[in-house]
Amino acid sequence: MKKVFLGTAFLLLFSLMANAQRGNPRAERQERIEAFKIAFFTEKLQLTPDESKRFWPLFNQFEQRQDALQEKYNLKGKRLELLSDKEVKDYIMNQLEMEDELVKLRKDYTIQFMEVLPVRKVAMLQRINRDFKKTLLEEIRKRRQVGPDGN
Known about the structure:
mainly alpha
């Protein structure tokens, strides 16, 4: 009887955990994208386990800093066509400043990537990142055409 109770409790707990994880479709989708990205980069760069261990924390940090920088210069819901000429000019100047900061960030991280990966793999990073985004967009388009339930 005790084994049946423990088994039932375990199944109930497992199903609750599974439902809790399914409760946030955006987080689920983000996790799938992240797993796809890791597989894509690992395959294309032919990362060894040691390279992966050293590369991914650095690459994730780079992406977080890049995202934070882009967020800093975001229009935050304002529509460009509704801004005054001065606001548009400020926006253009901010975009140029952001691009300068992004170039500096890429330079800094490229040097750090060369410390953990062979230089040829570092040289491939930008192209592989572009290929990943293109492949991801194609996959999203396909799934939208097919529908969420596969039909």
